């Protein structure tokens, strides 16, 4: 019995560490616009969820699950526990996957880095579909590996997991396919044509199960192409992806420099190890393909069409990176001869831990856009509510989370400029959620004598100051006062209507 306890010691400790880090500040960090969007849509009936997601950019599976979760409670901590659950379950699947692929020691090291990974910690608390996506893709990759090890002679159960994990991933994120195809890409590169054909056939069957949603996909793609803007990826975006895998972004101040340095040290050490093992590339080829497939395909596609290099969609790809890190450390600290010196492995370990520490501190403390202190903002507005007739938000990004924290307050927000890159709240989504913007400041303030205007400091900086903001200009002409209060990086302007 003692031996059994010792055998599971590292795994149990890593699981507890991962759980503790995913629960850190779970109730004190404010939700974001994206979180609030998920909550308000998930609160609606299932038919409205379908309508709302069809007009947006994502399939409905996560919203369906959150809808059911809401029946058990609507507190922020409870809502985030759903993503924590997905994160912990992903960790378990990831451990068993790596143990099958590279052995127990590599699985322990890889799981340790997963447990403290800032990018996975962040998405283990956000109210979006990325934690569920990671779980399903990791399960798909593991089942694919088991099938490959048996040269296709796997059980019906393993083929079923392979099929349905792909189908559910398609219903979770519209870019899931770029990760799902990685095992087939691996087999094609190995020229294992027959097995590759079987895997592709089953993945095509998963796509057929996705067929009911495919009728909405062209409209969602059109919206992404017309309403969302991401830069055409280049060297900067590649470097950002490397930082994201080790320390996540944003990193404020000098932390960005240290995060870049530590992340590049991890990356360069792993790359050095890979080059040393190039003659044994088959041993680490699978995680390498898992790492590179989705980012490479989206990078190339983004050179010829409206960019879709969305780094959050690379969350499953980071599993491949973590496997390479874990395998490198397992070899370096093992009894067999290593391809890199022990000192380099120690440097890799320290750089990985330090970059994770930077990311974790930022995860806990960062309170700037888009993770501004909306809960504090709601408390301030609630304390001044007896003095106010109207609360007007410059845009939906501050309205949604503030409305979640203070639904009893009379708040409104200005509509996005039609056709602009910020015009992302589709009319069908508005109707599904029963949340509508006001067309302009005149309509918002028509019946108001005392109004609070909410605007991000970031918006004022982009305009060149408050005097250049058209809403501030209108309110300063028709109201008096304009006293302001800062809540983090958000400004509240208080106006009182001019008396004749």
What key phrases describe this protein's structure?
alpha/beta; five-stranded mixed β-sheet; 5 strands; 63% helix
Describe the fold and architecture.
α4 packs antiparallel against α23. This protein has 26 helices and 5 strands. Strands 2-1-3-5-4 form a 5-stranded mixed β-sheet. A hairpin with a 2-residue loop joins β4 (479-487) and β5 (490-497). It is of the alpha/beta class.
Question: How do the strands and helices of this protein lay out in sequence?
Answer:
Elements: H1 2-7, H2 9-23, H3 33-42, H4 46-54, H5 61-70, H6 76-102, H7 104-116, H8 118-123, H9 130-149, H10 156-170, H11 177-180, H12 182-189, H13 193-209, H14 211-214, H15 217-227, H16 235-246, H17 255-276, H18 285-301, H19 317-332, H20 342-365, H21 374-383, E1 390-393, H22 396-405, E2 411-413, H23 427-433, H24 441-445, E3 450-456, H25 457-463, H26 470-478, E4 479-487, E5 490-497
Parallel strand pairs: 1-2, 1-3
Antiparallel strand pairs: 3-5, 4-5
Helix pairs in contact: 2-6, 2-7, 3-5, 3-22, 4-23, 6-7, 6-9, 7-19, 9-10, 10-13, 12-13, 12-18, 16-17, 17-20, 18-19, 19-20, 21-22
Which residue ranges are poorly predicted, with pLDDT under 50 across at least 5 consecutive positions? 1-7
Measured distance between first and last alpha carbons: 86 Å
Quaternary status of these chains? single chain
Strand content: 5-15%
In total, how many domains does the architecture comprise?
A: 2
Main sheet properties: 5 strands, mixed
Instruction: Give the overall shape.
Output: globular
Strand arrangement in the largest pleated sheet:
2-1-3-5-4
State the share of residues found in helices, binned by percent.
55-70%
Mean pLDDT over the full residue set = 92
- Continuous helix count: 26
Class from secondary-structure proportions: alpha/beta
Question: What is the number of strand segments?
Answer: 5
Radius of gyration: 25 Å
